[in-house]
Structure formats: structure tokens, C-alpha cells
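thoughts on my protein:
***
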Amino acid sequence: MIEASASPETPPTRRQLRRRGNVPVSAPATPVSVFTETTPHKRPARPKPSMGRRILGLGTVIAAPLLFVGVSLPVNIFYPSVELSPAVAGQGSMGGTDSGTQSFTVASSASGQVGVQRESWSVTSFAEVLKARYGSRNFSYSTTGNGSIRWPFPNTVPISSGFGDRVAPCRYCSSNHRGLDFTPGNGTPIFAIADGVVTESEYGGGYGQYVYIEHLIGDQKVLSVYAHMQRGSSPVSAGQVVPAGEFLGLVGNTGISTGPHLHFEIRVEGEYVNPFTWLKFYAF
């Protein structure tokens, strides 16, 4: 006899268990969103502008274009051309009464149409100022070629540049000229202006070939300078005593120079003086 197996008992449903009161409470599988209702934030109401602020704002809007018009138009556009006389007559400087009356005229708007009259102008360079001031100086002189004090040449020769301010003739040339430039021509012989002692006779620097001679004239030490001579043309040497009219060299173009010339200087007690004025006073 085959014994029938008992059929497995069907598990109770949730509803049955709930009725029995044995259903465990479990969290839902799907999370539940929680919405919180919030009250929207309200901005505080702006206070209405006062009547004074409204009037001020309206006045600003009206005044701005009027101000623009006022500063753009000439003031005399609103007045005709009239002659005004003061009510009180002018008085003299000593308190007396002046018989005449003072008056002035207000121009009409038609005068504004003429425009401002300006004079023409131009720019003058510093070089042109110096040229106008020193370019026309008179360097005429006369000489006998003799005497104890004489010019460096026995006859008159042209002078291209005087003592003092000038237009610098080259990049490294001086604008404050401390000597006198004679231009008798390249190779012209140069002579000592007075008896003296040669202190320097060398070649080099801005003076090129140069000679310094020290003289005693009128109880003063006078130094005469001869520069830009031809290289090797000077026969004198330092320490040599030379008389007036001694040959010193030939006109050249050595050192800082723009052409053949003799740059001649006079220094009295170490101070630079105008050689042209000095020679005109002492030389024959």
C-alpha cells in the first residue's frame, strides 16, 4: 500500500497574515520622497519717493538741456548792439568831477560770425637764433705785421668763427667757442704773436697738431694757443724760447676740425678771453 505524501501546505498570504495580526512591518522597497511646501520669500515693498524727490528729479531733467543750451550759445546773442552810459559820471583822480561820461558798447551777435583773428607764427631753431646773433659780427682788422705784439699772420686773413656761443659746425665741435678761427688757406705759415717760451708742442687730441706759448705781457701771464696745424709742420719744442714772429707751423685740418684753419686762443692768468678783442687792443 502506497502511502500518499501530504501536499505541502500553501503559505498564507499577506492579507491572511494581516488579519491574524502577525505581519511584520517592513520599510517599503522604494524610497518615498518627502516634499516640504515652503512659503515663497516676499521682498519688502519699496517706499514711494516723497513729493520733494519727485520735484527734484523733474527739475534735473528740465535743467540739464537748458544748461547745455546756455553754455553753447554766445551771451551777446540775447542783446542788441546798444551803447550803455553809466548813471554816475566818472570822477578825476583828485576827487574832481569829470565833465565827460564813460561809455562802452556791447557787440551784437553778428560780430561772432567774423571769428577770431590770429596772427601767423613760425618756429625759429636755436641754430638760427645763434646765427642771427653772432653770424653777422664784424671781424675786420688791420695789421702791420710788426711790433712786439702782433697777429699770428703778417697780413689780414678771413675769420670764420668768433669767441663765445655759436652753432657747432660738427658733432663733436664746441658750441661755446673759446677761440678765434682764422681761415687763410691750407698750408699758410703761422707765427708767434710775441716773445715767449714754448710750453707744449705736440700732436694729438681734439687740437691735432698744436703749440702753447707762455708770454709775460703787462705783468700778466698770457698763454697763446695755436691748433689744428698740419701734422709734423711745427719745428718748435717744449722749453724753447721764441721771439715774436717765430715760425710755428702751417695751417692744417688735424684734430676735431671741419676744414683747414687756425684755432687761436688767448688765456690771461688761466682765464679764457676773447682773442679778437685782445689782439685789437694790443697788436699792431
